[in-house]
Design a protein that fits this description.
The protein contains four helices and seven strands; from the N terminus they run ββββαβαβαβα. It is α/β, with parallel strands linked by helices and about 140 residues long. It has a three-stranded parallel β-sheet with strand order 6-5-7, sandwiched between helices. A two-stranded parallel ribbon has the order 1-4. A two-stranded antiparallel sheet has the order 2-3. Helix 1 (about 35-45) packs parallel to helix 2. It is globular, with a radius of gyration of 14 Å.
Length: about 140
C-alpha cells in the first residue's frame, strides 16, 4: 500500500482478525460465510501466485496455504526469512514473479503472535523486492 499498489482479497465473515476487526483501509471483501480457511482458499484461487513469507516450521494456516496452491496448480514460493539474506530473498522473489508472470500476488504467512517479527520481516522483504525490481 505504501508503494501505491492496488490491493484486495478476502476477509473472514465479520472482517475478523486475531486482534479484532480488520480496518476498512484494507480493501478486502468479506466472505458471506466462512472463516480463515475459506478466506485462505479464496485468496489463493483468485491470485496468479502465492508468496509465503515464513519463520520456522511451515504449519497451520500457512501450511494450508501452500497445500491449496499445490492442489490448484498455482505457483507458490516460500521464503524462509531465517534462512536467507534479505537481498538474496528479494532477488529470488522478483525472479519467481517474473518467471511465472504473476500479476495478482497473494502474500501469506503466519500470524505475528505465532512468529514474532514476521510482520517487520515481511515489510523488509517487500521493500527489498521493490528496490530489486527497480534495478533489475
Amino acid at each position: 500500500m505504501s508503494h501505491g499498489y492496488t490491493h484486495g482479497g478476502w476477509a473472514p465473515r465479520g472482517r475478523l482478525a486475531e486482534d479484532g476487526c480488520i480496518p476498512l483501509k484494507y480493501q478486502l471483501m468479506e466472505l458471506a460465510e466462512g472463516g480463515y480457511r475459506q478466506r485462505t482458499r479464496r485468496n489463493v484461487a483468485d491470485s496468479d501466485g502465492t508468496l509465503i513469507v515464513n519463520l520456522g516450521v511451515l504449519e497451520g494456516g500457512t501450511l494450508a496455504t501452500q497445500v491449496f496452491a499445490q492442489r490448484m496448480g498455482k505457483p507458490c514460493l516460500v521464503v524462509q526469512c531465517d534462512a536467507l539474506a534479505m537481498t538474496d530473498a528479494a532477488v529470488n522473489v522478483i525472479a519467481w514473479l517474473r518467471g511465472h508472470s504473476v500479476k495478482t500476488l497473494n502474500i501469506a504467512g503466519p500470524r505475528e503472535s505465532k512468529r514474532p517479527g514476521i510482520y517487520r520481516l515481511t515489510g523488509e522483504l517487500l521493500q527489498a523486492a521493490a528496490a530489486v525490481a527497480c534495478f533489475a
